[in-house]
Specification:
Layout (H helix, E strand, L loop, with lengths): L7 H6 L7 E4 L3 E5 L9 E5 L11 H22 L3 E5 L15 E6 L14 H15 L1
Antiparallel strand pairs: 1-2, 2-3, 3-5, 4-5
Length: about 140
């Protein structure tokens, strides 16, 4: 399958759609999920096109994983989390909905289940969570 340059994450990278950015470097971009399954739920994506891990270059994967690790530490610190769940889906049969490589980073607390998927979050709370993550990165 071919990469669709009009997917929502490509539009976010081009600033055609707003996002709550928490981290950016030369090759990756991290922003808050607007349907958070946990407080601090964020997404990490490569800046260059890649549908998923099946067609990403080794460098894209290495760059994204370095950012995922950095942001995992930040969300643990920002939210006093006991752990982190990483999610990454490949192709429709694998649960992928947006066909731009992305990793979900979800801070986790013992005994606290994830919220149901597909529910819009409170944008004020999401912005506050983003600020906590940015502060933890500083």
């Amino acid at each position: 399958m071919q990469y669709d340059p009009d997917n929502i994450f490509a539009k976010i990278l081009r600033k055609e759609i707003p996002s709550e950015c928490v981290y950016e470097d030369d090759t990756t971009y991290a922003f808050m999920d607007i349907m958070p399954r946990a407080d601090g739920h964020l997404l990490v994506i490569p800046k260059d096109p890649a549908r998923n891990t099946l067609d990403a270059t080794p460098k894209q994967l290495a760059d994204v994983m370095a950012s995922v690790q950095r942001l995992s530490h930040a969300v643990m610190k920002a939210f006093g989390a006991d752990g982190v769940t990483l999610q990454q889906f490949n192709e429709a049969a694998g649960g992928q909905e947006v066909f731009h490589l992305h990793f979900h980073v979800l801070p986790r607390h013992t005994g606290q289940p994830l919220r149901a998927p597909g529910q819009m979050g409170d944008m004020t709370a999401i912005a506050e969570h983003a600020e906590r993550i940015r502060a933890a990165l500083a």
